[in-house]
TrEMBL record:
Homodimer. InterPro entries: ATPase_NBD, Exopolyphosphatase, GppA/Ppx_hydrolase, Ppx_GppA_C, Ppx_GppA_N, PyroPPase_GppA_Ppx. It is a peripheral membrane protein. It catalyses: [phosphate](n) + H2O = [phosphate](n-1) + phosphate + H(+). It comes from Photobacterium leiognathi. It is found in: Cell membrane. Belongs to the GppA/Ppx family. Keywords: Cell membrane, Hydrolase, Membrane. Residues 314-488 form the Ppx/GppA phosphatase C-terminal domain. Coiled coil: none annotated. It holds the Pfam family Ppx-GppA. The gene is ppx. This is Exopolyphosphatase. Its cofactor is Mg(2+).
Amino acid sequence: MTETNHSSQPREIAAIDLGSNSFHMVVARIVGQSLQIVSRHKQRVHLASGLDKQQNLDQAAINRGLSCLAMFAERLQGFEPENVRIAATYTLRQAQNAHVFLQRAERILPFPIEIIPGTEEARLIYLGVAHTQPDKGKKLIIDIGGGSTELVIGEEFDTHILYSKHMGCVSYNKQFFANGKLSHKNIAAAQLAARQKLESIATKYLDIGWDKTLGSSGTIKAIREVLIAQGHSDGVITSARLKRLLDDITAFKHQDDLDLPGLSEDRKPVFAAGVAILSAIFEALDIQDMHFSSGALREGLLYEMEQRFRHSDIRVRTATAMAKQYNIDTAQAKRVQTTAVDIYNQIDTQPGVKKTELSTLLSWGALLHEVGLSISYPGFHRHSAYLLRYSTMPGFNLEQQTVLSTLVRFQRKALKLAEMPELTIYKRKHLYPLIRTLRLAVVFNGQRSDEPLPKLKVSANNEHWQLTLPDGWTKENKLLAADLKTEQEYWHKAGWELDVNELD
């Protein structure tokens, strides 16, 4: 249990990685300026093997995942939500029925589960490795998971290039070794498919270059353990050793017979696929040797949590960079942002929802609400929504990007609320106050003027909001008054009400 109420006790934080092959949890204490790992937990769930042709998770895979989360929940009793981060990766990104798993998981583990984009997974993996492997110079980090493989080049704590490719030991085992045969033909087919995935990026990586290659997570760890058991005590993975390992694998003909020193029983079904992928990466990127790093996604989550506690949030840098990239009118964005935050601070939100997190999302949404103007003015709110939903935004999970996209999509024009996307961490009703707030902030700053706005007083009773303005203000600001009247009509058609009054 955490001791958050006693300043003498170090703060405990936990990170969970819901991977395609295994679920991992790591718990750490923040001691001074460093993290101290206090426990690790791992469960093989083979989530990716439960994906059918329609990309739906079968019931057995869902149940395996939920059983693991129930065990993790025991360790996390007493933890505050801000001290736990849970990231879901490839399989839950792909699963059409991911919401079913998330809804059931919420009843077992009372913490938000973030489905993160592949590029965000790659960034967090790099962060985890960089913190646990403080080598100087540029590093190439490779992480072969159950459903995807991440490749990142970076230096110190900053990334230069990162990609996430749809190839993993579980998905490739299902695709190329479904019959269990360990033939040269099956391995060659898996290698060729991996090389094709890498074809479009290999030149970029080779042009940037790197000083050291590091591998993280289960597949590369398993290969290293087998090599050590074969007498390679340094545990270094080389191109020549990989080739010999592939020969050793095919000597067994079938996965059931696979018997290599150092290879665990539960890793056997996906081992050949993992080695085939890694050998293809070695060939495509002309890698000579690779060392193993114990850092991975969950460590990246932990270290980023620690940084956020120290008020260093990468999302601030991301939002600022995006505003610059799309050449937004910064002064106007700040005006809308200031007005939105002022209005939102006056209203009561849904009980049980952290107002600070929603306020932060509103603030970023206000800052970026006009990014779509870089495409065209007509329908720019829709362009803005598309950019915020599908751009690479380091530090943001898919749900947060969806929230930002939704806010800017509904900043103006008709409120077609039926078009709102489904959410898992938040509910639609949590977003409605944000949408109303942003719309009002946009209306009041419609003239893009530096003239100070009057003091806006807002009170809210669910869908019924009351706006109070200084006496005579609407007569002196007829254009804005007309815009407010139009806004009232939009609200009314959506089943909301906006009353506008003036102080006597």
